[in-house]
Amino acid sequence: MTKIAESELILNPDGSVYHLHVKPENLAETIIVVGDPGRVKEISKYFDTIDFSVQNRELFTHTGTIGKKRLTVLSTGMGTDNLDIVINELDAAVNIDLETRMPKQTHTKLNIIRMGTAGALQADIQPGDFVASSYGMGMDGLLYFYDKGKSVMNAELAEAFVNHVSWNENLPGIYAVPCSDTLMDKLGKDLVHGITLTAPGFYGPQGRELRLKLAFPELNHLIESFEYQGKRISNFEMETSALYGLGKMLGHDTLTICTIVANRVNQTYAKDYHADIERLIKLLLERLTQ
After folding, report:
1. Contacts of 53 (CB under 8 A, 6+ apart)
2. So where are the chain's domains?
3. How far apart are CA 132 and CA 237, in angstroms?
4. Strand 49-56 vs strand 59-66: parallel, antiparallel, or unpaired?
5. Most CB atoms closer than 10 Å: which of 55, 93, 209, 278?
6. φ, ψ for residue 273 (rounded to 5)?
7. Mean pLDDT per 10-residue section of the chain, whose length is 290 residues
8. What is the pTM of this model?
9. Burial, 264: exposed, middle or buried (Cβ in 10 Å; 0-12, 13-18, 19+)?
10. Angle between the 80-95 and 240-250 helix axes, to the nearest 10 degrees?
11. Cα 71 to the chain's mean position, in Å?
């Protein structure tokens, strides 16, 4: 194994990883990731203890306990580009010796659960429903930058989607990665399941038209009608495909559970999605600490 150069694994003066400002002892093996920095406190307020807290940019981290269960909650910000930073640095913190810059002989597997919000792409999935993502399907092309990317993809699912929607060759390559069956069985088995489509933006990539006209105005209708081996595309969001792809390549278990705040088909929006998020926080913490 080769020592990792300072330019590739950048560390802070205190020896912590560059963006997250964490060392291995600051992290639990079960990590809840959220997009919104304000949501970290909404989750950690249920902790019995908080023994570590740090903030850098939009990245807030709290680590503590509920009973005997140690948990970390971390905000990632929005987008697969942010997840590329967060997942790589979480893995580096636990699987690279930060003093010698050498990969550790023993691999630490993390359980990384994304708790987010999303827009439903099926008429029967209502605001307030909780969706557990069976697959994360990326419209952003991130995994194609990694040598192992294709090894974790479901190429058949991605190809079926590309053919169904006549995906334009000028757009990034589609990829699809499954969730962790272990986490799905523990946390999401009785929730709504579906393929989560991860978009590289909130407006045009998700079919929202304000003052800029869409290049592919029929795309959302084609997405709605897509089906693969009995699985539909349930929702749009902006992080899951990167979480699943990077997590799987690095040997971690991952799952996304989202509160539906809008239905894009019916054009409805949750009246009080904050209450729905609170319900999901309580459900997730109860299942994680059982």
Report:
1. 60, 61, 62, 63
2. 24-288
3. 12
4. antiparallel
5. 93
6. -70, -20
7. 93 98 98 97 98 97 98 98 98 98 97 97 96 98 97 98 97 98 97 98 97 97 96 97 98 98 94 94 97
8. 0.97
9. buried
10. 30
11. 17
Task: Tell me how far apart the alpha carbons of residues 125 and 109 are, in angstroms, rounded to a whole number.
Answer: 33
| Residue at 237: amino acid letter | E
Architecture of the structural domain at 24-288: 3-Layer(aba) Sandwich (3.40)
For residue 206 the two structure tokens come to: 């998700």
Helix (H), strand (E), coil (C) string for the chain: CCCCCCCCCCECCCCCECCCCCCHHHCCCEEEEECCCHHHHHHHCCCCEEEEEEEECCEEEEEEEECCEEEEEEECCCCHHHHHHHHHHHHHHHHEECCCCEECCCCCCCEEEEEEEEEECCCCCCCCCEEEEEEEEECCCHHHHCCCHHHHCCHHHHHHHHHHHCCCCCCCCCEEEECCHHHHHHHHCCCEEEEEEECCCCCHHHCCCCCCCCCCCCHHHHHHHCEECCEEEEEEECCHHHHHHHHHHHCCEEEEEEEEEEECCCCEECCCHHHHHHHHHHHHHHHHCC
Residue 81: other Cβ atoms inside 10 A = 14
Torsion angles phi and psi, residue 211, rounded to 5: -95, -15
Alpha-carbon gap, residue 133 to 180, rounded angstroms:
10
HEC readout, 208-245: CCCCCCCCCCCHHHHHHHCEECCEEEEEEECCHHHHHH
| The pLDDT of residue 51 | 97
